[in-house]
Amino acid sequence: MSGGNTDLKNADLVIPKIPATAWAVLGILSFGRELTGYDIKNWSDAILHFFYWSPATSQIYTELHRLEELGLATSRTIARDDVREKTVYAITENGVTALQNWQADVNAEAPVLKHGVLLRVWLGHLAEPDRLREQILDHRFRLMEELDAAKDSSA
Amino acid sequence: MSGGNTDLKNADLVIPKIPATAWAVLGILSFGRELTGYDIKNWSDAILHFFYWSPATSQIYTELHRLEELGLATSRTIARDDVREKTVYAITENGVTALQNWQADVNAEAPVLKHGVLLRVWLGHLAEPDRLREQILDHRFRLMEELDAAKDSSA
DNA sequence: TCCTTCATGTAATAGGTTACATGATTTC
DNA sequence: GAAATCATGTAACCTATTACATGAAGGA
User: Fold this and answer.
1) Which of A29, A91, A119 is the best mutation test for B, with the most CBs of B within 10 A?
2) Within an 8 Å CB–CB cutoff, is residue B141 touching chain A?
3) Whether B26 contacts B43, CB under 8 Å
4) What is the interface size between A and B, counted as CB pairs within 8 Å?
5) pTM for this prediction
6) How many CB atoms lie within 10 A of CB B35?
7) What is the pLDDT of residues B71-113, one digit of tens each?
8) Which residue from A20, A23, A118 is facing B51, i.e. has the nearest CB?
9) Which of B23, B103, B135 has its CB closest to that of A106?
């Protein structure tokens, strides 16, 4: 603790303090493709949402602006068709470094689960058993659908 | 759809539009005990947090005020010791009805998981394998601790 | 012709955290 | 004598959602 003068082993100093959502968006960019905000929303819905929820579209644009301001991402405007344009974002070198440092940080926030169905099950003492069973089956059915959709999208 | 004039089968009309957190707090109250805001925070940390995250203390007091304003909960002041007082909350009949209606509602919000560790694993291409393994073991260790604590509290 | 996809954002509002403040009592 | 527990909130701030707005292209 009271060692030398360059005791800066800890990476905290080069990890900008931005919300986890920003890291998630930067993470999507870290796979190397140039993407529009719209693309990122679709990736979030399809993938991220399984382990880290999908932010609203407007939130994604907000995070992209933030990342660009911090120099963690860059944008450029390219043609969409003869008439219109679109803005694609890419991760920068600084972005990769920052993301790596964040990735390596042990102090990961405690996982948070917000499960409306489980919450309802926990309140099962207020429900008729048949109704509760129905709710769970309903949930199961929706999960299966989601699973199929996920399988399709990775095929 | 174009049936009779009292076509109010749907329970939506008697389910006040309050955030899920409010339902969770009311849910804790639905187990029948009179509790202080402080008590509820402890219950949240110990139980709720496994399937529905634990709100900040100040948030819990906010929700209690909201519930009382809507008549879903009542409060009364009782003695804490010779000098001080405390406010305990209880669910009302209206509260039970509302909670039952909410419980029975099929349109449960999609479950949301915010898992910082999984997010980091997903970004594994940025990490050294050993480091990543270490992170997962670390997470596992913390989970075990939590499990033990949970076992103790239910013993 | 109408709906869906692609694409980007603003404005209003709600939901939620952090920091701060206070203070008696009980336990170590 | 110090630290943890019990107990309740306010104020400042940030995070995030919803509603709204716009508009071309392409498929049904």
Assistant:
1) A119
2) no
3) no
4) 120
5) 0.88
6) 22
7) 999 999 999 888 899 999 999 999 999 999 999 987 778 899 9
8) A118
9) B135
